[in-house]
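Q: Convert this sequence to structure tokens.
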Amino acid sequence: MAQRLYITGTDTGVGKTRVSTALLHALRRQGSHAAGMKPVASGCHWTPEGWRNDDAVALQVASEPFPDYDLVNPFALTTPTAPTIAAQKAGIVVELPPILAAYRSLRQLAESMVVEGVGGWLAPLADELDQSDLVRALDLDVVLVVGMRLGCLSHARLTARAIREDGCRLIGWVANTVVEPLDYADEYFVAVQQAMAAPCLGRIPFLPEASATEVAAFLRLPG
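A:
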């Protein structure tokens, strides 16, 4: 079954790229052509091929068939900071139409899509463009990555509430262990699970060096 997913997080640095690439491998494992996308990425470095962002490259590599980088990451911003600030520093206006065009081109290559957001849910893509605007425009289902660390229960509940209030569909969440050891890890997991109306799609242990294929073993696809 084709999936069209938007991966958001409770904060920055909670493992959105890790989950996104793992989901791409899981989709490919079930026989689906799947393409990843990072519409707006800040913190890019110069290469002979042009500006590249490591997270976007990871999504490109995890995709099948292999897409052009410009489709994966239409807005590559150099400064490693919030996209609104990075775009301002670069003199770039991040707008919805180029993102929609790139998404349509990727959809011609793959029936399943995994689109990774920026920071937490309420981090804007541009001054007048929220992530919820993009999700609604592309009609994507939202998967929330919960960084399992102190404060995760509040962050998970607040983010889930904001997603619902923005009129978007939260269809699942993933517990990603970002610190080790986390005191009362099992209790935190149960607490978040009980607080979330959406199902848990996986619990990833603290495996900082694991490949996307290895992480995929801890996930189940929604639906």
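The chain has one domain: 4-216.
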